[in-house]
TrEMBL record:
NCBIfam families: ispE. Its EC number is 2.7.1.148. The active site is at 11, 136. This is 4-diphosphocytidyl-2-C-methyl-D-erythritol kinase. It comes from the Bacteria. Residues 66-143 form the GHMP kinase N-terminal domain. It is an enzyme of class 2 (transferase). Transmembrane segments: none annotated.
Length: 281
């Protein structure tokens, strides 16, 4: 089979509510994952010596704990002994921003190698494997903008109006572990039905704490909110403003202070991963 070149789209959490803390230390969430048309790109070239190699435009990511290699190792156990692959990761999504880049890279790897190695696993089976790598991996495997509960693994596809987003990432790295372990984190938001959530004001329960711990995130939000409704995604540091059209988003991008990294993306109902993988058959 020829080389596969596939996208790994980013995501936004349009809202993130924390409804309680579980006995195992994880948190129960209610969130809305919006998939984007922008993200990383991965290239998969088959080899027949059983070896799996990863290269990246950021060499510091070429480590054994990279989720791409961990995803490949999960499928290697189900593949022929000679099945191998060279993977090249073109990293574009800011790391540690709450945009799901690593999880999406893992999901794309699972989907690509399932096809490249002829494993025949279903999307449900791939999603279950993905959950062992991280709570956000299943939404990228299933490939639909979706409402999520639990730790993020119980998914329900949602159809949303098409919008464009300006995503801005300050030069800070937010520790997800620190945020979720912090005593001041809001953990008691009342659970709502999906219908109630879709008709309520959206918020991110991590945002107030992250703004307190990382003032640069607060600065970005204070700037963005002057132009459009804005919130933080995940545990940050990335924040986003939503616009009805691409022109408005790009107008604001051109005004952005130079010290912040940013890009414009369109919200999509279906992941471009599965579209391109189907076309590659």
């Amino acid at each position: 089979m020829a080389t596969l070149i596939l996208p790994a789209p980013a995501k936004l959490n349009l809202f993130l509510h924390i409804t309680g803390r579980r006995a195992d230390g994880y948190h129960n969430l209610q969130t809305l994952f919006q998939l984007l048309d922008q993200g990383d790109q991965l290239q998969f070239t088959p080899r027949d010596d059983g070896q799996i190699q990863l290269r990246c435009n950021l060499p510091e990511l070429e480590t054994p704990d990279n989720l791409v290699l961990r995803a490949a190792a999960l499928l290697k156990h189900k593949a022929a002994a000679s099945a191998g692959v060279d993977i090249y990761l073109e990293k574009q999504v800011p790391m540690g921003g709450g945009l799901g880049g690593g999880s999406s890279d893992a999901a794309t790897t699972l989907a690509a190698l399932n096809q490249l190695w002829g494993l025949g696993l279903s999307i449900k089976e791939l999603a279950e494997l993905g959950l062992t790598l991280g709570a956000d991996v299943p939404v990228f495997v299933e490939g639909q903008t979706a409402y999520a509960e639990g730790v993020g693994e119980h998914l329900q596809p949602v159809s949303l109006p098409e919008k464009y987003y300006l995503i801005v990432t300050p030069e800070v790295h937010v520790s997800t572990a620190l945020v979720f372990q912090h005593p001041d984190l809001t953990r008691d938001t009342a659970p709502l039905t999906l219908a109630q959530l879709l008709n309520s004001d959206w918020k991110n329960d991590c945002e107030a704490l992250v703004k307190q711990l990382y003032p640069e995130v607060a600065l970005v939000l204070d700037w963005l909110i002057e132009y459009a409704p804005s919130r933080m995604t995940g545990t940050g540091a990335s924040v986003f403003a939503e616009f009805p059209d691409e022109f408005s988003a790009r107008q604001t991008l051109h005004k952005l202070p130079s010290q912040w990294r940013a890009f414009v993306a369109k919200g999509v109902a279906q992941s471009p991963l599965w579209t391109e993988l189907k076309d590659a058959v």
